[in-house]
Amino acid sequence: MPGTFCGHYYVAVFTAVRTREQSGYSETVARREDLVKDVPGYLGTDYAQIPGGLAITVGYFRDADAVTAWRTDIEHRAAQKRGRAEWYESYTLHIAKVERSHGFTRA
Amino acid sequence: MPGTFCGHYYVAVFTAVRTREQSGYSETVARREDLVKDVPGYLGTDYAQIPGGLAITVGYFRDADAVTAWRTDIEHRAAQKRGRAEWYESYTLHIAKVERSHGFTRA
Q: What is the pTM of this model?
């Protein structure tokens, strides 16, 4: 995530396995990346995926209100619905309040 | 993660970029996977990595005590130290209390 933040911000941890039906998916992800940047309190995202396997997206948000704003965004909700109908075999979502964090960067 | 849990369990979100120096790393990861299973309250792990890029490991723990037990495990601490000395270019760790979660599996 970009920078360092104080206080009890939130992480939204999304793990997903996708189906073989991926038409429209990459466009929606690109659009999602634009949309989330407009959410007040959005702090950044980390993403990783095993090719053909599990993908993990970690979104960082300043507070619970920011998480709710993103979760209930109308265009995002439509994408969530399409995800369940077409793109995701399974997923889990955990919304969690950060109690402690640290980072390391090689000198 | 395996199964579904009630109550306020914890996630430990570890993101890392590795160096080119990876001797001993894969053996240590295999050992770590064995070790963490012995931590009382350990619930499971999700992992993803962009080849050559960011890796994300999400550990799930029943409570804060379980997280502390894992963080302070002597062999794990030695591995953390070696990680900073050799294997990691950078990393972030967030310990967070889950407030809400849900999952989806295709019918």
A: 0.91
